[in-house]
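Researcher: I'd like a candidate sequence for this fold, 293 residues long. If you have to choose between options at a position, lean toward the conservative one.
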């Protein structure tokens, strides 16, 4: 399978580089970067994600300010916590783990995060900076996709990219990043007519629709690059559960030029970009204090 884009090994490489940089800068400024992950309730998938993020922080030397709250926690209480973290000089990145319990307004909480500490890159100010091509914090999953292209020296200029999905978390920022890299970009979704035909026209397919194994070989032209952002849990007839993507890997892998596996593709890259964002925020803050001394 030499056409695999290995997100796991690339993420490890990024984390090793970050670890070196964190050590250098901690010696200069006297403190490491800090990331606060706010989790509400006990969603099993979220619990796994948060644990992975906290373990990744520990590996690279980022202090984790994880805060786990019961499902019944109020909007007002969480807003107060976010404001405290905004003021905390030890915290450089803040992330609210989604999904939240139904009674909470996730968008409202994201708006409360200081844009300079928006580790997930989802605050309107950071999305606006992305749209304008200005430097700023980038949404982690699409940023991870772009970093993987870079790692494998994949030429993007002039390619036709089809993004399947239009969420603010992945689809829209992904399209903007590909556009910034001089791709011709089509955003397709559940209401797109003849979705398979639109997808089949693409040199690059990014699947972010949240439907297990929906993208079959009918959606992919031979030689296309296929990026699978989906993470879906399915149970077979024997009651065994496993993770699959939005792409039917078995049918698509033989015809793709490159393809990302699930797991081990974009998931680890998302965590690596979260750490990268936290370090970027830290650097923005501490470099100015070092220069002014």
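Model: Candidate sequence:
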């Amino acid at each position: 399978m030499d056409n695999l884009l290995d997100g796991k090994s690339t993420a490890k490489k990024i984390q090793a580089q970050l670890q070196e940089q964190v050590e250098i800068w901690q010696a200069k400024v006297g403190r490491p970067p800090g990331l606060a992950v706010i989790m509400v309730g006990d969603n099993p998938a979220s619990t796994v994600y948060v644990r992975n993020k906290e373990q990744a922080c520990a590996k690279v030397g980022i202090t984790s300010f994880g805060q786990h709250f019961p499902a019944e926690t109020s909007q007002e209480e969480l807003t107060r916590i976010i404001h405290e973290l905004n003021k905390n000089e030890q915290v450089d990145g803040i992330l609210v783990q989604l999904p939240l319990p139904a009674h909470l307004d996730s968008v409202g909480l994201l708006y409360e995060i200081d844009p300079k500490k928006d580790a997930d890159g989802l605050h309107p100010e950071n999305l606006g900076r992305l749209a304008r091509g200005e430097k700023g914090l980038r949404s982690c999953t699409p940023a991870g996709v772009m970093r993987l292209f870079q790692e494998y020296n994949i030429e993007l200029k002039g390619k036709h990219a089809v993004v399947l999905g239009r969420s603010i978390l992945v689809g829209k920022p992904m399209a903007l990043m590909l556009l910034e890299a001089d791709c011709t970009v089509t955003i397709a979704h559940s209401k797109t007519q003849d979705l398979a035909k639109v997808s089949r026209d693409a040199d690059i397919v990014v699947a972010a629709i949240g439907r297990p194994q929906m993208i079959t070989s009918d959606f992919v032209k031979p030689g296309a690059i296929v990026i699978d952002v989906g993470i879906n849990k399915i149970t077979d007839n024997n009651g065994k559960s496993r993770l699959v993507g939005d792409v039917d890997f078995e049918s698509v892998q033989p015809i793709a030029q490159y393809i990302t596996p699930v797991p081990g593709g974009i998931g680890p890259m998302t965590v690596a970009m979260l750490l990268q964002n936290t370090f970027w925020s830290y650097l923005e803050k501490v470099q100015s204090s070092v220069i002014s001394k």
